[in-house]
Amino acid sequence: MKHKRYPIFIVILTVMLLNSLACTLPQLLSQPEEDTQENELDTLEVTSVEPLELQTGEPVSLFSGFVDSQGGLIQISGTNSPIEGFSISIPPDAYHETVNFSVSYLPILHHNLPSDLTIITPLIRIENEGIYAQDHIELTLPCLLSTDQFAMLFAINEDNGNLEPLSLVDQDETHIAALTRHFTDFLGIAVNKAALEALNIKTEFVHGVHTWQFANEGSYLAPDGYCAGMNLLALDNYLRRNKATLNGVYDNFNNNHTITPDQPFDDRLAMRLVSVAQKKINFQGENTKFWNKVQKTQDHTLTYYAMALSLKAPSEPQYISVYSSTGEGHSLILYGNWKDRFYVSDPNYPEKTANRFLFFDRSTGKFRTYQSGPNARNLGKAYPHIFYRNKYDYLNNSQLVILWSELTAGTIGDGLFPPTSLYLQTYQPATLGLKKRASIYEINNATSFIFVDKKDMSGLSRKMKLINILPDSAVTVVNEKGKKVAQGRDQISIPLTNPSGTPYLFAFWDQLLVRNQPVWIDGRWITFYQSLTGIYNGGVCAESESEPHRWELNIIQDTTGYVSGVSYFHNCPGGGAVNYVVQGTQKPGEPTVSLTGIKTGGRGNLGESSAYQVTFTFGLKQPLTPNFAP
Predict the structure, then answer these.
(1) Of 197, 410, 453, 514, whose CB is crowded by the most CB atoms within 10 A?
(2) Which residue has the higher pLDDT, 206 or 445?
(3) Do residues 13 and 72 lie in contact, with contact meaning Cβ atoms separated by under 8 Å?
(4) pTM to 2 decimals?
(5) Which helix (H) or strand (E) holds 450?
(6) Closest by CA position to 295, among listed 26, 24, 88
(7) Positive or negative, the Cα torsion across 276, 278, 283, 284?
(8) 3-state SS class at 258
(9) C-beta of residue 300 within 8 angstroms of C-beta of residue 383
(10) Distance between CA atoms of 365 and 601, rounded to whole angstroms?
(11) How far is CA 40 from CA 304, 314, 340, 357, in A?
């Protein structure tokens, strides 16, 4: 680390090594998975907090220097400043390149925090070119607190100015130690412990409204679950989009089908989104790093106060990590507190009626063990260790913006999930005594419906055979009522129950089992139609050999639903005729198609009186209308 020397302070550089620390924590009292008590937060009004306003003086520079991939320790010493002794401990490989750091402080002249919150520092400004660290960086602030006070370090969100409590490592009357991976302006805030112990607070975050509509089932990309991805994106949606509803918004998003609240496996883009977020976190590595830093300081009383203050200061939902005795983690959202119950949203329990909480037992000074699981299919896991976490320890703002944009574009997960596709095996009717011949048509990933020629159905009792091309996978097929109609690995057969459109959900499952259960790969709705392609006509009219019927429609329909062709009307005898070219697109689920007809010729009374442009309607069970020669 290179640095400039200033006469008013000393910079100390050390190389930090991460050591794996082990300790055994006692097993705690178990909490049942379901609690019959009502949610006490329902009796509270929402607690609102005014947006933070600070008036500061001019910045005072304390340090400027460089940190390379070897890491180091920046310590403010000999400056006689209000943050004398403040240190930034940067582990090796936190940065892959050399980063310029600067540290300054700004005196706070005025603020609008509630009177029971005390700011114990000036505004601490740390700048590092906006580079997000690859590992947790520990900040240590010396302070002087009374025994009845509790304090934390808070970052100020650059986008909305909200207070963001940092992940707490340790705190007592002499210092605060916290973790971060991004740098901005920071504050130290203290409060009387009695105020936290008496805290009853309800944020505007509502489980079942601001959370996903599906459960933490896991996927091909995140086979053990995507709880962190679900909760981080739910929190980001809530904060970024002004507390906008999330539940149901991305139900079946961009899947060309109506919403299906009781069928989660067609929420393909949303499930891909949370899976990609979970994968980007490298959750196992992040858990290990955090666990190595905090396990030696696990103090349930500190966690209790940290959770209470993280709710009180900004009145916003917060991120909670719970760990098993072996360090396996699970993710929760903290959204309210009633005395010793901290109410949480658990993605394993997405139902709006779920009543989940962390209970602090004052008689023991410990949280009761929380019961849940790595995913919704593997419950019954004990999590005795509970920590408040800052959500930006995992994904930074730019990563979150990219994830949402890829969801909107429909490209989220492309190249990460295996491509899924089906082949439709059809048959051509026997001709001149020859056997039926098979033909194969691909239903590619971008197509939500395909048209099946009525000739292809001959001899199949209206059954269609589909071939799965994804190896080591199985396909489950359900109808719109949620009833499973087929399941198989290589070939499956489904009925065409409605020629005007039979929709089926095809869910793909990886057969490389995780915990003896298959994991989700993809879910797509495909609506099968009987094609409109053909020649249709009315009664015979022998007046003209070139137009032998009173009306005729000759059309071709492609696999996108687009219909094109020609039509004529012959008002015989002696009433004249008119000809049209027609085109239109049949919408999924619609038994008929609207065709725009443009007149190309005619003769006699009908040719002269008919309109130049006409909108016709046609379906397999409905003749062409309007009909000029019925």
Answers:
(1) 514
(2) 206
(3) yes
(4) 0.84
(5) strand 449-452
(6) 24
(7) negative
(8) coil
(9) no
(10) 91
(11) 18, 21, 11, 11
Per DSSP, the residues of 522-565 read EEEEEEEEE---EEEE-SB-TT-SSS-BSEEEEEEE-TTSEEEE
Residue given tokens 């009761």 in the structure block: 368
- The Cα-based distances of 218 to 234, 442, 514, 519 in angstroms read 17, 28, 10, 6
pLDDT in tens, 418-450: 988 888 876 655 554 555 556 677 776 656 677
CA distances for 128 relative to 65, 104, 350, 613, angstroms: 10, 12, 39, 67
β-strand partners of 142: 175
For the chain, list the domains and their CATH numbers: 422-530 (2.60.40), 534-625 (no CATH)
Pair of tokens at residue 394: 């995992």
Contact 113, 189 (CB under 8 A): yes
DSSP 480: T
Nearest-angstrom CA–CA distance, 129 and 132: 9
Work out the number of other CB atoms within 10 angstroms of the CB of residue 172.
14
Decide: helix, strand or coil at residue 580.
Answer: strand
Q: Residue 455: its pLDDT value, please?
A: 61
Q: What is the pLDDT of residues 147-174, one digit of tens each?
A: 999 999 999 988 788 899 999 888 999 9
Instruction: Write the pLDDT tens digit of every residue in 26-72.
Output: 222 334 444 546 788 888 999 888 888 999 999 999 999 999 999 99
The structure tokens listed for 608 are: 């002269």
